[in-house]
Protein 1
Amino acid sequence: MTAFDNNRRKILMGIGAAAALSQLPLTAHASLSAPKRLSFYNRHTGESTSQTFWTPSQYDSSALEAFNQVLRDHRTGEAMPMDNGLYELLYDLTRTLGTDRRIEIISGYRSPKTNAMLAGQSSKVAKKSYHMKGMAIDIAIPGVELSRLRNAALSLKRGGVGYYPKSGFVHVDTGRVRQW
């Protein structure tokens, strides 16, 4: 291959990459470089936090620690690192809904002890819940109807979505795509 052919190939590959990027939705372009912020309020502890958890190219570990603390098991006080994909899912969910309101936490991380206790009280609690893995959260957003929240979560097709209108929350997780 001559130097001319090699340069021509590089130019054509660059044009192809630019064309492919131009087909991405605007939100995809923004998500690559824009800071990402979430606000949480824990209904059980009264604690809240609002943090920028992503700055272009990296997660902010102090923001993630603040989130993990607010999302801890309120019964035992145990915290664990939550799945970063869960924060990404929640961020995209708020963007889909067009809101920057705080997310109210009904249940974030659950210790195995708490989960076993809850599973013993209700058949609706999974014995191997994603809450114990830091991959699930039960939420509500003030001013957003639960059915709208559920539909937005379903539209993302990024994990499990449970709808609990009588209890006033929507469950989202980063497991396989499913709904109930």
Protein 2
Amino acid sequence: MSDSALAPEIESRPEVHLAVVRETVPFDRIPELYDRAYPAIFQALAETGVSPAAAPMGVMHGSPAAEGLDLSVAVPIPQPYTGTGGGITAETIPAARTATMLLRGDFSGLSAAYERLYAWISERGEQPTGIAWEQYLTEPEPGGDPALNETLIGVQLAGD
């Protein structure tokens, strides 16, 4: 186990309501989507008087494809999102058994962390459902130390 990632575990997670911008995006344009989506989501939430319920997330749907990743840039909220316009929509991550792992450090370690988590899931004979997510527990700051970033990654599992 590296010092940047803690041991994976399986936990029961409740459903999570989200305000999202969802697009299929080429891999090299993912940062652009995040940079565009989060300000729009936070503005829409402020305009509707809804406060975030937890740290922002990225939710991946299905497997990556040649055209890119089906990605929801998301902010957890207490109730289903009912605002309209601005390309912001409602999404709910269902309650599920979820394999999780905490990654500490730069976002460049995410790919290796997912590989490790999926290998761990496979070793245990578990089956992913096709929903994976990452939750950005610390907000990166310009000029900040990326080694201080904490990202919780999760992969929903089939079965009870």
Protein 3
Amino acid sequence: MKFQDLFAYQKSIELSMQIFEVSKSFPREEIYSLTDQIRRSSRSVSAAIAEAYRKRDYPRHFASKLTDGDAENSETQVWLEYAFRCSYLPEVEYQRLFGESEEVGKLINYMILNPGKFGVKKRE
């Protein structure tokens, strides 16, 4: 299995691409703050999942990298809320993207709680 086959990875990539598309309409004055931040944090989620999968021979590193991805996902939720509160996203779009982010978070947490299903072997 490749990390690209992981459902959490696929969903996080989809979400980051959706965020990329909607962030194109953010005001120009937000390019170095909100736009850049939300794109970076959303992209970091899939990168952390890929890194975790490559670290699956080391259970603590696997969990640590996934925790990093979960934190980046939470940061993405913060930026989504700012985009909504600044009226850059309509409520329906905010709710949809936030819901997708919550799903990604659940998938990451499933991986953390079930490392054996992802090739992580217990260390003695």
